Each structure stands twice: as C-alpha cells, then as structure tokens.
Amino acid sequence: MNTAITASEGRQLAACEAVIESGLRTFADVGSALLAIRDGRLYRATHGTFEDYCKERWGFSKSRANQLVSAAVVVCNLATNVAKPTSEAQARPLLPIGNKPSSRQQLLTEGPG
After folding, report:
1. Closest by CA position to 106, among listed 63, 70, 76, 62
2. Predicted TM-score of the model (pTM)
3. How many CB atoms lie within 10 A of CB 62?
4. Which one, of 56, 73, 54, 57, lies nearest residue 65 by Cα?
5. How many CA atoms lie within 13 A of 112 on its CB side?
6. Domain ranges (residues) in the chain
7. Contact, 73 vs 101, CB < 8 A?
8. Which positions ≥6 away from 87 have C-beta within 8 Å?
9. What is the residue-level pLDDT of the chain in tens, covering all 113 positions?
10. Which of 43, 49, 74, 112 is deepest in the core (most CB within 10 A)?
11. DSSP secondary structure code for residue 101 in this structure
C-alpha cells in the first residue's frame, strides 16, 4: 500500500516531523505540521492511512491529531489583538467560532502565526 513521495514532499515531511518531534513545542505548530502531513498525504511512503501514521509514529489517535489540527486553525483565525490560547485545551471551546475550513490553506502556507 506504500506509495512513493517526491523529494520535495520528503523534505516537507521531515520538516513537519521535526516540529512534532522537538518535544511538541506548541500545540499550534504541531497541529499545523499534522495538517500539512494529513492534507498532503505525506505519510503515504510508510503508512497506508493517516490514522496508522499517527498511531505508529507518534502514539496517538487520529482523533487526537485532528483535535490538534483544529486547535491550530482556531489560533490562526484569532485576531492579533486577542490573547492566543497557550494550550490545545484552551483552544477547543473556540472551535465553533474559529475553525473555518477556508483558513486551512492559510495555515498551511503561513503557519500558526
């Protein structure tokens, strides 16, 4: 089921994994990295599904990964004059007002800000 990825995708995967591996610095950076891996299917060279990738590589469920992604999108959508959440748990209640599907592309290109 493994499908090769390009050299560019391999570099992007390595960069995203470095963010996650660096001690899960911030939930927004981790969520942004997971979003790039999931939406770009960068896991496909080693894993058949994003769920398997999360479980085997990072030891957490797909739903946990999606929580982190959603929280990162919320943080990206918050105005700059608003205090940003410092944890994924703080961002979770904001999901209904701050998780816009259109902002996922912005998060992928600009990061969590």
Report:
1. 76
2. 0.58
3. 16
4. 54
5. 26
6. 7-110
7. no
8. 27
9. 678 899 999 999 888 888 776 644 578 888 989 999 999 999 999 999 999 999 999 999 999 999 989 888 887 777 566 677 777 787 778 777 665 555 555 555 555 55
10. 74
11. T
